[in-house]
Amino acid sequence: MSKISIKIKDWPFKRGEKAKLIWIGGPFKQNNKWVFYAYFRGDNSTRKAMLDWASIHFLSVDKYYTDGNLNNGEVLENQETIDINLNNVKAQYIERNWEVWGTGFRDKTKSKTFNFNKNGLLYTIPIIEVIRAVLAPDRFMLNRIVEMDTLENYFTYEIEQSKLSIHFTLQYEKNLLKSEKINHLAWILTNPKVFKMFNSIGKNMWEMQELKFDFLFNSFNIEARVERKEKYIRILEIVALRRKKINVEEVNIYHPSLEESVTTNETKKRSYFNKNIGSERELDSKADGAAKASEEINTLLISHEYEIMPKINKIKSGRKIRRNKEDENTKRYILENENLRTTADEGGEKLLKGLEFTSIANVKEKGELQEFIELLKLLEKRQAVRSVEIIIGELPEGKKGKRFSKLSDRITKRKYGIGKITMMDNEVCSLIEVEREDKALSMLLLKGNILVNWKKIYSIILLGLVDESGKWSNNAIYKIRQKGIDICRNKHIKRSIYDKEIHIYEKLI
Is 396 buried (19+), middle (13-18) or exposed (0-12) by CB count in 10 A? Predict the structure, then answer.
């Protein structure tokens, strides 16, 4: 199989011109996804390119790139690679204003590094390099690290004695079950300080809009490409992380794809075909996420070495039916492939990640959720209501709720709406509505205070809904009530929108 070429769609240099990567900026939100600026210096100019956040796996400072081809970076200068042991050396976080400049180009950004003093030498590492090479060495982990409380959309886990059990949902793609990815995940989950670092990054991005975290490693052995000047060593690229310790002996993994397949003579109900599959991919930062059918692009470019490798057990549970035959009743769907890719997410379907509210005035929706939006607009006019915000999203598949996550055509994703109503006394009420298609599914009303982690609450509720195949999960509701939140079901009544608004408002106050 030929190597897939990964290219920037709008490369700002001439064909054949080598451009040196001189700086990687911090992530920021653009059109509901995380992006960053990469700064390149060519023969006669300096330019910046906006890329998806996960594209940093292809980039290393002081490497040269040609024609926007990111997976063929070259080291042209005489740079050395050395082993560095920073075990138990205290890190100092340094932040200062930074200016990237060149002929006809000047841009202000920030330099954020961890500095280490050891044996009279000063080592400096950009914090983005710690994220890229150490904490999140593949694009799935990179996309999760800037989110807050979304790992539970992909798996739950427990550690008992010397065994780690990870129960993956359908949202965690089958191609991520490779041993190197499972080992890295196990390393994070079984080292509390590492897990704390990982979680703090997303928390700080969402709460403070700032890329910042504490360096908590006790053991930090790396091999790195460096630039050396007298008693100063600048780490340009971490190429290997050594002596990682996974604190369990066995890892049991459970995933829906591990179910035993049984072939049947029944015909397929639908069949999918890919078009225009080639060996070159263009990364487009304007795209809204990778296609579900996209192949995995290998971004695991850094070597991770472990003290002891745990035994990985893939546990089969349940059975699934495989239909191979087709007939005239099999519906055919063509999956268009225009060779455009984004590294915004592995798999690309929208998940319960980084749940973001928007003003109710900015939302237009047709279908069942249209009345829900009109209801919220009426509530917004009440004197006791300070503000009303809304999320419109698509249900995830959960562990076993794949069927309910789509409408009856089995293709269209089922949508949900969440209205967050903040009252004048700072009490927060949330209304949750889901496209029903005549199903007897009530609207949920939740009441708590402004300090509640509402994003986590919504994830528990909606994942419970799909896992119960379209019923509000009593277990999820019990968990939420334990957190001091009141929940009540509101049956849909055949009355005018104004009567419904009065009925809801009386419960809010």
Answer: buried
DSSP state of 218: S
Q: C-alpha distances in angstroms, 152 versus 15, 53, 165, 463?
A: 45, 21, 14, 9
Q: How far apart are the first and last CA of the chain?
A: 64
Q: Are 298 and 281 in contact (CB under 8 A)?
A: no
What pTM was computed for the model?
0.62
> What is the separation of C-alpha 313 from the centre of its chain, rounded to a whole number of angstroms?
26
Distance, in Å, from the CA atom of 59 to the CA atom of 61, rounded to the nearest integer, reads 7
Residue 368, C-beta contacts closer than 8 angstroms, at least 6 positions apart = 433, 435, 436, 437
SS3 state at 352: coil
Distance CA 63, CA 66 (A): 10
Residue the block writes with tokens 């914090």: 127
Q: Indicate the domain borders of the chain.
A: 5-270, 358-508
Residue pair 497/374 in contact by the 8 Å Cβ criterion: yes
Give residues with Cβ within 8 angstroms of 428, minimum separation 6.
420, 421, 422, 447, 448, 449, 450, 452, 454
Report whether 167 contacts 156 (CB < 8 A). Answer: yes
Query: Looking up tokens 């277990």, which residue turns up?
Result: 475
Cβ atoms of 27 and 56 within 8 Å: the answer is no
45-54 burial code (b ≥16 CB/10 A, e <16): bbbbbbbbbb
Lowest model confidence (mean pLDDT) among 102-106, 233-237, 322-326, 351-355 = 351-355
Share of the chain above pLDDT 70, in %: 81
